[in-house]
């Protein structure tokens, strides 16, 4: 067997080491992707409440965040922005949405039409994507039932007050009637006694 010359083996080790170092450097410079965390994938809210659609992302480069709402009424773009840049909020949500640097958005004064699926896409500048979904359920407060209870309570309070006043007046009248009757009985008894005395 022939052994390679000592110099060739040394050169191969050096070339292999340089190649390994270049590959490691290239791997470190290549984006490691983007990760996205959705801590609360289901949100229950009532009408007129404010809700936070919370996410947390991380990536090596500059990311673009985009939010969309999908419901039975269709798909609506909510907001889109690049980290550190101006936030572009659609006119439908202009006065109701606040965007945060971590990718979250706050939706104010929700209504029944805000129920549905909220999709967030985080795209790194090199093209890597991460997706997240939050389901929002919106419930109505039954104001009619509360109104009925309040009206019924007010009606019962008014009837009770009228009955109390009526009982007080009856009691007062009865008391006055008893006083007059007692006074008349006393007067007639006195008259009878006087008549008996005169007859005698």
Automatic annotation (TrEMBL):
It comes from the Eukaryota. One of its GO terms (cellular component) is axon. The chain crosses the membrane at residues 12-29, 146-170. GO terms for biological process: filopodium assembly; positive regulation of excitatory synapse assembly. Residues 40-139 form the Immunoglobulin domain. It is found in: Membrane. This is VSTM5 protein. It comes from Myiagra hebetior. The gene is Vstm5.
């Amino acid at each position: 067997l022939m052994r390679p010359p000592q110099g060739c083996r040394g050169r191969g080790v050096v070339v292999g080491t340089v190649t390994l170092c270049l590959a490691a450097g290239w791997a470190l410079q290549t984006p490691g992707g983007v990760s996205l965390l959705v801590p609360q994938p289901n949100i229950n809210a009532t009408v007129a409440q404010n809700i936070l659609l919370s996410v947390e992302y991380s990536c090596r480069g500059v990311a673009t965040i985009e939010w969309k709402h999908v419901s039975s009424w269709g798909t609506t773009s909510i907001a889109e922005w690049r980290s550190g840049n101006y936030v572009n909020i659609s006119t439908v949500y202009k006065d109701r949405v606040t965007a945060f640097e971590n990718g979250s958005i706050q939706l104010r004064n929700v209504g029944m039409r805000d129920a549905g699926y909220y999709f967030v896409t985080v795209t790194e500048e090199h093209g890597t994507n991460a997706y997240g979904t939050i389901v929002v359920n919106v419930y109505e407060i039954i104001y009619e039932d509360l109104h009925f209870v309040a009206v019924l309570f007010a009606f019962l309070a008014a009837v009770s007050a009228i009955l109390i006043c009526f009982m007080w007046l009856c009691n007062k009248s009865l008391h006055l009637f008893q006083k007059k009757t007692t006074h008349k009985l006393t007067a007639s008894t006195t008259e009878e006694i006087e008549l008996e005395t005169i007859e005698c």
